[in-house]
Amino acid sequence: MAGALGACVGDEPGTTGTGAPDGAAGNDGSALPDSGAPDGAGDADDAGDAGEVEPTPDGGILSVEDFSVHSSFPGGVAKVAFAADGSLFVGFTFRGQTSIGGTQLSSDAASDDIGVAKFKPDGKLAWLRRFGGAGAEALYGLAVDAAGDVYLAGDYRSASIDFEVARTLGGVSSAAFVAKLAGATGAAVKSVTFHKPTVAGGRCDAVAARAGVIAVGCTMDGVADVTMSTGGTADVSPPGSGAGMLFAELDPTSLGALWANGLGSDAGDFVSSVDVTPAGDLVFAAVSGSASDVALTDTKGSINVTVRRSPTALIGRLARASGLASWVKPFGSATAGAGLRAQGIASDMAANIVFCAQLTGTIDIGGKAVTRANPSAPSFEGMVVAKLRPDGTTVEARSFGGSSDELVRGIATDRWNNVLVTGRYTSTDFVIDGHTMPAPAASGNQVLFALKMNPSLVAQWGFGATTGDGALIQGQGVGAAPSGKVAYVGIFAGTADFGDGSPRQSANAGAGVNAVIVTRSP
Questions:
Q1: Which DSSP symbol is given to 34?
Q2: Any residues with CB less than 8 A from the CB of 44 and at least 6 apart, and which?
Q3: Cβ atoms within 10 Å of 190's Cβ, excluding its own
Q4: Distances 85 to 46, 73, 81 between C-alpha atoms, Å
Q5: pTM for this prediction
Q6: Is the model more confident about 166 or about 242?
Q7: Band (18; pLDDT cuts 50, 70, 90)
């Protein structure tokens, strides 16, 4: 295990990133504008000197830290976010025993629990916490607000789980939750659930904090029971016959909903990611689609769009004051074998929206047609990053990758509107804007990658971590510190080289799965 995470001097408020959880159908550029947020509102990315000079792109390795998360795949859903003071928070799902910074952590029985760690700006561990019961718990989202407090999104399957109070399962298979932790200590100070006891369960797939609100997106099995900020609860039933989506903005103190909106169709719809614009609107990425066209609607009567064949990426913006849709864009195709699977979303300082997705075939993204970077392998998925204006019109969309199977998992923006992405690939011919990415050690092996693109989506640097034994490795989450320092988190099995001169081996002599945190200069 590596030592303390590398620190940056003079950190000021910066951004965090989001990405899709495991199993889900699955954050651009000049001087900084006024955020549009109310006085006193904002998040870690909304402060700072607009005249500060952007660091020269470098990407030099600063630190690598790894720790065990599971005895076997698919353990270790991992997310990362920076606070305004440059502290780094990492959330993960783990099983068994692990150790971070010399502190031990053990899950309850032989089931998955949630772990959260805070690293100080100097890279030293500040605290490490576990949340879980006798059943399986999972973390899917993590965010940090302007005050440095932490928000977790996920689900639990234990009969009872302790946050600030005990939360019960109530006769459903899984309970969707958001929990708030004190940034200084890691203690749970508030939590809220969205499942309807004995009726319907679900999971919270994503959470974001900005402009004085907490945005959440959940995939629900049926009606959601939402605690309102004005008191009492409200039943929100997403339309349609399949899985539906719940979006809400929460008061950061009470975690009561300021508004809630249910979206759904007869196809089944799954939340991938959420973020908050500088003005406090919720933006989301989701996946829908079936064998024929279906209508996507919402409980507020503000959405009626046609979803094409599966998979179709849904990108939308819901108003801060009401939750009404400003717009929703379905990006899909009527052609069998073509589709777009949204994985992550982020809003930059100018309220532009960037999202990442998996691509098969050719898809039109608001007038920009994208095809696999290497169309000679149509059976494999490629990677896409697209940028939309605040009104939802398309600025740019591009595909990237090689001739084999690719997976993009997380996306974020920094304070200069650059775009960060992470994921994994297996291609031997991945070249992007003159940057030749490292080839896998052997055919079919995976490579964890991180890319930094400028606001025009041109790559500034790219790095890959290889594993020599054909085992699992992938990036899952990415974020930027106020200084521009980049952190990305992923998982790996076997032996992997992350570029710091010290190859890592996962737990159980390489048979288990480890999480890894890599930090790089801007």
A1: P
A2: 13, 14, 15, 16, 82, 83, 84, 144, 145, 146, 148, 209, 482
A3: 21
A4: 13, 34, 12
A5: 0.91
A6: 166
A7: very low
Per-residue pLDDT, 374: 64
SS3 for 237-279, per residue? CCCCCCCEEEEEEECCCCCCEEEEEEEECCCCCEEEEEEECCC
What is the residue whose two structure tokens read 């204006």?
Answer: 389
Closest by CA to 515, choosing from 58, 15, 59, 114, is: 114
Tokens matching residue 430: 């991945």
CA dihedral over 464, 465, 468, 473, signed as positive or negative: negative
Pairing of strands 150-156, 431-432: unpaired
Tokens standing for residue 333: 């195709």
Burial of 466 (0-12, 13-18, 19+ CB in 10 A): buried
Instruction: List the one residue out of 217, 215, 235 whose CA is nearest residue 225.
Output: 235
C-alpha 500 chain-centroid distance: 25
Tokens of 380: 């494999």
Q: How far apart are CA 297 and CA 316, in angstroms?
A: 12
CA-based nearest residue to 95, from 127, 60, 61, 132: 132
Return phi, psi of residue 275, to 5°. Answer: -150, 175
Cis peptide, bond prior to residue 74, ω within 30 of zero: yes
* Residue 141 identity: G
Residue keyed to tokens 């994985």: 343
What are the CA-CA distances from residue 343 to residues 44, 81, 321, 359, 514 (Å)?
23, 17, 26, 11, 22
**Mean pLDDT, the chain, integer:** 88
- Whole-number pLDDT of residue 37: 31
Could you tell me what percentage of the chain is helix, strand and coil, using 3-state DSSP and rounding each to the nearest 5?
A: 0, 50, 50
Identity of the highest mean pLDDT range in 104-108, 224-228, 512-516: 224-228
- The distance of Cα 321 from the centroid of its chain, to the nearest Å, equals 24
For residue 441, name the pLDDT band (cuts at 50, 70, 90).
Answer: confident
- Token pair of 75 as six digits: 């353990």
Residue 263 to residues 223, 343, 473: CA-CA distances in angstroms?
Answer: 11, 18, 34
What's the pLDDT tens digit per position in 36-53? 332 222 344 444 445 579
> Which segments of 388-491 does DSSP mark as H helices, in order?
none
Q: Which residues of 436-464 are buried (b: 16+ CB within 10 A; e: fewer)?
A: ebbbbbeeebbbbbbbbbbbebebbbbbb
Distance, first Cα to last Cα, the chain = 24
Hey, CA dihedral for 442, 448, 454, 457, is it positive or negative? Answer: positive
Residue 27 confidence class, pLDDT cut points 50, 70, 90? very low
